[in-house]
Design brief:
- With about 160 residues, the protein is mainly alpha-helical.
- It is about 55% helix and about 10% strand.
- The strands form two sheets. Strands 1-2 form a two-stranded antiparallel sheet. A two-stranded antiparallel sheet has the order 3-4.
- It is elongated, with a radius of gyration of 28 Å.
C-alpha cells in the first residue's frame, strides 16, 4: 500500500509488499510444482510455458554459465515469494476448436498441423453452406408462406 500525505511525498510500497504481490506481474515461485525451490516452475508460469521447458533452459544455461545461473537461482529463491494458494494467474486464453472451450495459450503446446486445421475449417464451411441452402429453400417455398399466414392468425 502507498503511504501518502506525509509532507506531500509519496512513499513507494516496501520491497516485501511488492514481493508478496508478485511485483504486479504475477511473478511467484510455484511451490506446488517445484523440483528444488519452485523458481523454474514460477518463471514458467509467468512466461506461460510448460515447466519442463524452463527447467531444460535453466540446465542448459547452467552448463555454460554455471556459477552465474546458480547465483541467479538463489536470488530467485529469495526474491520470489511463494504463490499464494488460490491465486488466479493472468493467463491469456484462446478458443480451442476441438474442445469447444477456451484454454490457456502456451507456446510449447502443439496444436494440430495445418492440413488438419484446414480440413476442419473446410468441413465447417460445408456445414454452414448446407444450413444456408436449407434456409433459402425453406424461405422460398410455399410452406414458408403458409407458416407466415398461420402466424398472422395466431396473433
Amino acid at each position: 500500500m502507498n503511504k501518502r500525505h506525509q509532507h506531500n511525498y509519496i512513499y513507494p510500497e516496501s520491497w516485501w509488499d511488492r514481493r508478496r504481490q508478485g511485483y504486479g506481474m504475477n511473478l511467484y515461485r510455484n511451490a506446488e510444482s517445484r523440483r528444488v525451490a519452485g523458481v523454474c516452475a514460477g518463471l514458467a508460469d509467468h512466461f506461460n510455458v510448460d515447466h519442463w521447458v524452463m527447467r531444460v533452459i535453466a540446465i542448459g544455461l547452467f552448463f555454460f554459465f554455471n556459477g552465474l545461473v546458480f547465483m541467479g537461482y538463489l536470488a530467485g529463491w529469495v526474491c520470489l515469494a511463494p504463490r499464494p494458494r488460490g491465486k488466479d494467474t493472468n493467463t491469456r486464453y484462446r478458443y480451442d476448436e476441438n474442445l469447444h472451450q477456451d484454454r490457456p495459450v502456451n507456446m510449447f503446446r502443439y496444436e494440430a498441423n495445418v492440413s488438419d486445421r484446414l480440413r476442419t475449417a473446410q468441413q465447417r464451411m460445408n456445414d454452414v453452406v448446407e444450413r444456408i441452402t436449407r434456409m433459402e429453400r425453406y424461405v422460398t417455398s410455399r410452406r414458408y408462406e403458409l407458416d407466415k399466414e398461420f402466424s398472422k392468425i395466431e396473433k
